[in-house]
Design a protein that fits this description.
single chain; about 500 residues; alpha/beta; globular
């Protein structure tokens, strides 16, 4: 029997996503990095409460702040933990599910809408994304809401609903605050050709209503203006380098062929992807009298997202999460025509839970054990030093009050050419050279670690051997993926 109340359906979706949100340690690098950025912003980082994202004390402008703000709010209420660090991902997933369900409920009816939401909720791609602390699911959810609000605004070919248009521009502004320019580029790429294909070019112009544009500017604009006022290089770095240069360059990690996403999306949405064995054209366009071109919207939406992110050579799986809503809409229409979903849905749900349980059991790459030992031993005034690695989750679990010193070869001329943790720190150093000089140490300064007001703790890989210049270094704890050492105070310190 179907749940008839939208509130109950969406409450059940929230319970499903929240139940396992904190069940496993943070994964590296993304979850450790982004979770700790939110933690640093919450504890105050010297740049104004909650305004400037910082990575180990240095301004970090790879992404805008919306996810950090959501995670900060959760940490304020629930404490600094993995559950709170994934709150932004949960919000994005719930928003995607809610927007798709409510739109389909209006256009095709309660039964197919509920089945489609069940398909989406039990897709491994969706469920794992909702449990993963990075920006991809949040931006996917806000983009889904943006597109569907715009579609609702132009639902009638004869007029534009101003209320839904303002909601769409509000969601669009939040999408920009979630990921940057794709927050406006992708919705326009989806909606423009779809409306033009129906000969509704006037509605494209009507979507640019002054009130809508005002809402967008008022919501999205202030943070970017403030960052540019505080940091002169912000616009060049955030917009030019992180958007245009990054999109066009080929020197980043995760290089895959053009067809990569075409293979990945069906694989990550099994078993439901099996329902598209028949041509898409045979999927009935239920609700066509309410919204002409509905099937065309789903198809073009998916094609536009996959095509856009297939152009760069660097391809991360999470980039195509904005294609998940239209893909599952097509799947849901096919699934709703039969009864097999009654047993496939619980089986797929169990598979999703098994994936999360496996990640919790293995905790690949986690340094939580080392961080917890460090938290138990450190005292005010102690220094923490990371040896040639970022150890993103250690500050999070150890609740470090001050940035860790990162000892590595910061004079290496190849750092700007490699998309890794050292480039992230080097980029951040551009915005605060004074702080960077205190945090980013070269190996020749290792001897200085013997001297200081407090104790010095080293976090290093398990095979690390301290140089003689560091003096006496004693192992304290060896964890699953790293070790904790203590540097003895030097007798020749001033």
């Amino acid at each position: 029997m179907f749940l008839t109340s939208p509130r109950r359906v969406l409450a059940l979706l929230a319970v499903w996503l929240l139940a396992t949100l904190g069940a496993r340690p943070l994964l590296l690098p993304d979850e450790g990095r982004y979770g700790n950025v939110a933690r640093e912003m919450l504890q105050g980082n010297g740049f104004g409460f909650g305004l400037v994202p910082t990575l180990n004390g240095l301004p970090f402008f790879h992404k805008p702040p919306l996810m950090y703000w959501l995670d900060m709010a959760a940490m304020q209420l629930l404490g600094v933990n993995a559950f709170a660090a994934r709150f932004g991902a949960f919000v994005g997933a719930w928003l995607m599910g809610a927007a798709l369900f409510l739109a389909l409920r209006r256009w095709v009816g309660p039964r197919p809408a509920t089945i489609t939401l069940g398909v989406l909720a039990t897709c491994p791609f969706f469920f794992v994304g909702s449990q993963y602390a990075n920006l991809d699911m949040l931006v996917a959810g806000v983009l889904t809401a943006t597109v569907l609000c715009f579609v609702r605004a132009v639902e009638s070919p004869r007029r534009v609903d101003l209320r839904w248009l303002l909601a769409a521009w509000l969601a669009c502004a939040l999408a920009v605050l979630a990921k940057g320019l794709i927050g406006i580029v992708l919705p326009m790429l989806v909606l423009g050709p779809w409306l033009l294909a129906q000969g509704r070019w006037r509605q494209i112009l009507q979507m640019l209503h002054p009130l809508g544009l005002l809402v967008f500017v008022v919501v999205a604009g202030p943070w970017f203006v403030l960052m540019q006022r505080e940091f002169a290089e912000f616009n060049d770095y955030f917009f030019i380098e992180q958007h245009f240069r990054r999109f066009a360059q080929t020197g980043f990690n995760n290089v895959h062929p053009f067809w990569f996403y075409i293979a990945v999306l069906p694989a990550l949405t099994l078993p439901w992807a099996l329902w598209l064995r028949r041509p898409v054209a045979t999927v009935p366009e239920a609700g066509a009298s309410t919204l002409p071109g509905l099937t065309g919207l789903w198809v073009w939406w998916g094609v536009a997202v996959l095509g856009f992110f297939s152009l760069p050579s660097s391809k991360l799986v999470g980039y195509i999460l904005p294609a998940l809503a239209p893909w599952c809409a097509l799947l849901g229409m096919a699934v709703a025509r039969g009864r097999a979903w009654r047993w496939v849905l619980p089986a797929s749900a169990l598979a999703c839970l098994a994936i999360v349980a496996g990640l919790a059991w293995k905790a690949p790459g986690s340094h939580r054990d080392v961080a917890e030992r460090l938290a138990a031993l450190q005292q005010p005034g102690d220094r923490v030093v990371f040896i040639d690695s970022a150890f993103y989750d250690v500050p999070f679990y150890a609740q470090l009050k001050t940035p860790a010193i990162v000892l590595s070869d910061w004079n290496d001329p190849t750092i700007p050419q490699r998309d890794n943790w050292r480039k992230e720190f080097a980029d951040a150093a551009r915005f605060d050279p004074v702080a960077a000089a205190k945090i980013l140490w070269t190996p020749d300064r290792a001897k200085d670690l013997r001297c200081g007001p407090g104790r010095t703790w080293l976090v290093a890989d398990k095979d690390y051997q301290p140089p003689a210049a560091m003096g006496t270094v004693s192992p304290v704890f060896v964890g699953a993926n790293a070790q904790l050492l203590q540097v003895a105070a030097g007798t020749d310190c001033p």
